[in-house]
């Protein structure tokens, strides 16, 4: 099955700096890659996603890049703010039919210091 | 904005007892998922429903876990008997179709003593 590895496990940045989180996946058939933000005690929230027919997607301060050849994708947060502090999870999915599950990475705890 | 609802939010039980969790997906979402999230780890899929049918329960410990979605809307996940290792956050998610984005509920945090 699919295996997703996420790095780093913790990341500390100064407010205003950029943060980058990287994920690698094992199955080249994966074609959908969402990112979730989970604040302490709260639900995972979808913040951005990308499909394999696109190399990059941007939404305000958040962007995701995908390298299908190398089988890795990254989350980029610019101009970080204290409210960006949370655990971020990447995920990968093979196909889009019933039975195609999301496989999550282990998470990155991002701390933005004021 | 519509959200996935779950109850209870917290459950404390003793081992060997039965527990049940309830999930109400976003209205109109045909696909429903139950995940288990151990502290410090990413969610792991337990079972996926398409309408009232199970399409993937390969990771569900069927000797003690069961899930149903009788009318294709809300769903119940049951554990009987609960074991110490079942302590975790149980998350429900839904999507309009199997290929579309998944939206999570607030979860039920289970503690087994």
Protein traits:
heterodimer, A: six-stranded mixed sheet, five-stranded antiparallel sheet, globular, B: 113 residues, mainly beta, seven-stranded mixed sheet, four-stranded antiparallel sheet
Overview of the molecule:
The complex is a heterodimer of chains A (114) and B (113). Chain A has 114 residues and is mainly β. Chain A has strands at residues 4-7, 10-14, 19-25, 30-38, 45-51, 56-59, 62-67, 72-77, 86-94, 102-104, 108-113. In chain A, strands 2, 4, 5, 9, 10 and 11 form a six-stranded mixed β-sheet that branches. A five-stranded antiparallel β-sheet of chain A has the order 1-3-8-7-6, with no helix packed on it. Chain B is an all-beta fold and 113 residues long. Chain B has no helices and eleven strands. Chain B is globular. The mean pLDDT of chain B is 94. The interface between A and B is medium-sized, with 25 and 24 residues.
User: Which class best fits the helix and strand makeup of chain A?
Assistant: mainly beta
> Using only CA atoms, what is the Rg of chain A?
14 Å
Q: Radius of gyration of chain B from the CA trace?
A: 13 Å
Oligomer: heterodimer
| Major sheet summary line of chain B | 7 strands, mixed
Estimate the mean pLDDT confidence of chain B.
94
Label the overall shape of chain B: globular
Number of strands of chain A: 11
Kindly report the average pLDDT value of chain A: 93
Query: What percentage of the residues of chain B does DSSP assign to strands (E)?
Result: over 45%
Gap between N and C termini of chain B, in Å? 37 Å
Q: Helix count of chain A, per DSSP? A: 0
Protein chain pair with the most extensive contact, residues per chain = A-B, 25 and 24 residues
What is the H-and-E element order of chain A?
A: EEEEEEEEEEE
SS field, number of helical segments of chain B? 0
The low-pLDDT segments of chain B are: none
Low-confidence stretches of chain A: none
User: What portion of residues of chain A belong to β-strands?
Assistant: over 45%
- Please trace the helix and strand order of chain B, writing H or E for each element: EEEEEEEEEEE
């Amino acid at each position: 099955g699919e295996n997703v590895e996420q790095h780093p496990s913790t990341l500390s940045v100064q407010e205003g700096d950029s943060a980058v989180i990287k994920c690698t996946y094992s199955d080249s058939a994966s074609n959908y890659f969402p990112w979730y933000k989970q604040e302490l005690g709260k639900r995972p929230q979808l913040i951005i996603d990308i499909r394999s027919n696109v190399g990059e997607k941007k939404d305000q301060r958040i962007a995701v890049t995908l390298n299908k050849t190398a089988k890795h994708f990254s989350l980029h947060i610019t101009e970080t703010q204290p409210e960006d502090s949370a655990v971020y999870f990447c995920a990968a999915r093979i196909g889009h039919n019933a039975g195609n599950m999301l496989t999550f990475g282990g998470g990155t705890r991002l701390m933005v210091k004021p | 904005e519509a959200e996935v609802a779950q109850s209870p939010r917290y459950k404390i039980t003793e081992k060997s007892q039965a527990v049940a969790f309830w999930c109400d997906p976003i209205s109109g979402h045909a696909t429903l998922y139950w995940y288990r999230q151990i502290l410090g780890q990413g969610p792991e899929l337990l079972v996926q429903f398409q309408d009232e049918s199970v399409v993937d329960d390969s990771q569900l410990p069927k000797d003690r876990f069961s899930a149903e979605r009788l009318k294709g809307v809300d769903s119940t996940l049951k554990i009987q008997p609960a074991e110490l290792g079942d302590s975790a956050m149980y998350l429900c998610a839904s999507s309009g179709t199997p290929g579309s984005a998944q939206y999570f509920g607030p979860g039920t945090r289970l503690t087994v003593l």
